UniProtKB/TrEMBL annotation:
PANTHER family referenced in this protein's UniProt entry, alphabetically: DTDP-D-GLUCOSE 4,6-DEHYDRATASE-RELATED
Enzyme class: lyase
Cofactor(s) required, per the database record: NAD(+)
EC number: 4.2.1.46
Lineage, highest ranks first: Bacteria, Bacillati, Actinomycetota, Actinomycetes, Kitasatosporales
Catalysed reactions listed for this entry: dTDP-alpha-D-glucose = dTDP-4-dehydro-6-deoxy-alpha-D-glucose + H2O
Pfam families xref list: GDP_Man_Dehyd
Keywords noted in UniProt: Lyase, NAD
Protein name per its UniProtKB record: dTDP-glucose 4,6-dehydratase
Domain annotation NAD(P)-binding: ranges: 8-307
Alphabetical list of InterPro entries matching this protein: dTDP_Gluc_deHydtase, NAD(P)-bd_dom, NAD(P)-bd_dom_sf
């Protein structure tokens, strides 16, 4: 009998981490894995996101902080691999108070890396973002583009990427980094652009569109993102960075139009608000490396998957209503648009 690969997933109660865990333990998952989620359950962590796997004998949940060196030591020592999602993720919050971002994203990641150095897991996948590169007017970034983050969120993610790479280059730990574009899908915390707009529109409320609405993002369905992460976990190379893109580049204005149509709302609900400070104009990843090396392709067509996503929020009001109430309000114009 082969023994299961024990994977420690940090931040597994969040949007992408929980999708990853549900997928891994679901019918399309790798099989032969045991998953432990380590999650602090901050305002963004939702225990119910893991309800579908809670009964599995291949799943365990530990509520705790990735900055807790003693706890992290205990857990990393008992696992073969690490997939690291845990982070403070809302750009707008980082503009108001960056401390929690520095603590979790930088110090927390270094705590995991220090422990990985002691136990040498087979693989450590560090999940990052296209925002580490700043903004690009034309063309797309390749994995060797210089890091030039603008928001405090992006600066902490860039710092953690550099620490992760340093851990590989200095100590030879098998660290692999993924950087993806903007995700969408079910279980996305309703302060981020798509779920915020959809849930506001479902309530007949206005949606706050930053600036001229011409900022450009590439949208990646969370199914495609977790498939890309799995390809990197199982087939990627140590010390390498892999971009995971969605192939659906849109302005926020175009996206808003599609969301209005999908909900059946009209444009009078769009409120133009003052632009976010330091707002990046455009992100664009060249993801030919993961396509050529690991045969990654996004499978979800954007417009169809967006309609499906809107239907999920329409059908799952009990999931998002309490979350909208519990997220601490931001005093910026346009409460919490991340894109
Ligand atoms: P999320 O905010 O939905 O979830 C983050 C999770 O981390 C939550 O469950 C939270 O409780 C947990 N957490 C926070 N601080 C912690 C700590 N100190 N210790 C343990 N757990 C902690 O985030 P997400 O959208 O699922 O993002 C996951 C990862 O993907 C992040 O690293 C993020 O930077 C990256 N990413 C996200 C996107 C996107 O579009 N959502 C895009 C690019 C990269």
């Amino acid at each position: 009998m082969t023994t299961a690969v024990r994977i420690l997933v940090t931040g597994g109660a969040g949007f992408i981490g929980s999708h990853y865990v549900r997928t891994l333990l679901g019918p399309e998952g790798a099989g032969g894995v045991h998953v432990t989620v380590l999650d602090k359950l901050t305002y963004a962590g939702v225990a119910a996101n893991l309800d579908a796997v809670r009964g599995s004998d291949r799943f365990a949940f530990v509520q705790g902080d990735i900055c807790d060196a003693e706890l992290v030591d205990k857990l990393v020592g008992r696992h073969d691999q690490i997939v690291h999602f845990a982070a403070e993720t809302h750009v707008d919050r980082s503009l108001h108070a960056a401390d929690a971002f520095v603590r979790t994203n930088v110090h927390g990641t270094q705590t995991l890396l220090d422990t990985a150095l002691r136990y040498r897991p087979e693989v450590f996948v560090h999940v990052s973002t296209d925002e580490v590169y700043g903004s690009i007017a034309k063309g797309s970034w390749t994995e060797d583009a210089p890091l030039a983050p603008n928001s405090p969120y992006a600066a902490t993610k860039a710092s953690s990427d550099l620490l992760a790479l340093a851990c590989h280059r200095t100590h030879g730990v098998d660290v692999r980094i993924t950087r993806c574009s903007n995700n969408y899908g079910p279980h996305h915390f309703p302060e981020k652009l798509i779920p915020l707009f959809v849930t506001n529109l479902l309530d007949g409320a206005e949606v706050p569109l930053y600036g001229d609405g011409l900022d450009v993002r590439d949208w990646l369905h969370v199914d495609d993102h977790v498939r890309g992460i799995e390809l990197v976990r199982t087939g990627g190379r140590a010390g390498e960075v892999y971009h995971i893109g969605g192939g659906a580049e849109l302005t926020n204005r175009e996206l808003t139009r599609l969301l209005l149509d999908a909900v059946g709302a009209d444009a009078s609900l769009v409120r133009n608000v003052e632009d976010r400070k330091g707002h990046d104009r455009r992100y664009s990843l060249d993801w030919s490396k993961i396509r050529d090396d690991l045969e990654y392709r996004p499978r979800r067509g954007f417009e169809e998957a967006l309609v499906e996503t809107v239907a999920w929020y329409r059908d799952n009001r009990p999931w998002w209503e309490p979350l909208k109430k519990r997220a601490a309000p931001l005093d910026s114009p346009g409460p919490g648009v991340r894109a």
